[in-house]
Amino acid sequence: MHTKDFLLILIIVIAAAILWLGFAFLSPAENAAAVISVDSKQAIKLDLQKDGIYEIKGMLYPCTVEIKNGRIRMESSQCPDKICEHTGFISHSGQSIVCLPNRVIIELQKQEGLQLDAVLQ
Ligand SMILES: [Zn+2]
C-alpha cells in the first residue's frame, strides 16, 4: 500500500468520526426543554414532552407558542416580519426560534438527567 493511499483512508476515517460525533452531539432530541426568554430575561421553561399552547407576552406583541410531539414552534405572532412563525417546528437542543422585533427567543436546551422510561418506549 502506498503512503498516499494510507493517508487518504486515514482522512476518510477521521472525517467519518467527526461526522458521527457531530450527529451524536446534535441528535438527542427527546430530553430537550424549551427556554423562552423575553428581552434577554428568562421568562419560562417548558417541557417538550407536554403538548400545549402557551401565550407569551413579548416586548411589543403577544404571541402563541405550540408544543406538539416533542417539538415546539411559534404558532402565531403579531410581529411584522413573521420570521419566527416561518421557522416552523424545532426539536433539537441547540436550535432556536428568534423573534427580533418582539425580543422573544425560544431556545432548546438539553434537560438535566436522562429520563430512562422515555428512552425505553
Ligand atoms: Zn416574530
Summary of the model, kept short:
This protein is an alpha+beta fold. The chain has two domains: 1-29; 32-110, N-utilization substance G protein NusG, insert domain (mini-chromosome maintenance (MCM) complex, domain 2, Sandwich), CATH 2.60.320.10. The chain has helices at 3-26, 83-87, 116-120, and strands at 32-38, 41-47, 52-57, 62-68, 71-77, 96-99, 104-110.
User: Helices and strands: which structural class?
Assistant: alpha+beta
Mean pLDDT comes to 86
Give the number of DSSP strands: 7
Order of adjacent strands in the largest pleated sheet? 2-1-7-6
> How many DSSP helices?
3
CATH superfamily of the largest domain: N-utilization substance G protein NusG, insert domain
**Strand content bin:** 35-45%
Q: Given this structure, which CATH class of the largest domain is correct? A: Mainly Beta
* CATH architecture descriptor of the largest domain: Sandwich
Largest sheet: 4 strands, antiparallel
**Shape verdict:** elongated
Radius of gyration: 19 Å
**What is CATH's topology name of the largest domain?**
mini-chromosome maintenance (MCM) complex, domain 2
Order of helices and strands: HEEEEEHEEH
Bound ligand species: zinc ion
Distance between the termini: 48 Å
Low-confidence stretches: none
What is the helix content? 25-40%
Structurally, the number of domains stands at 2
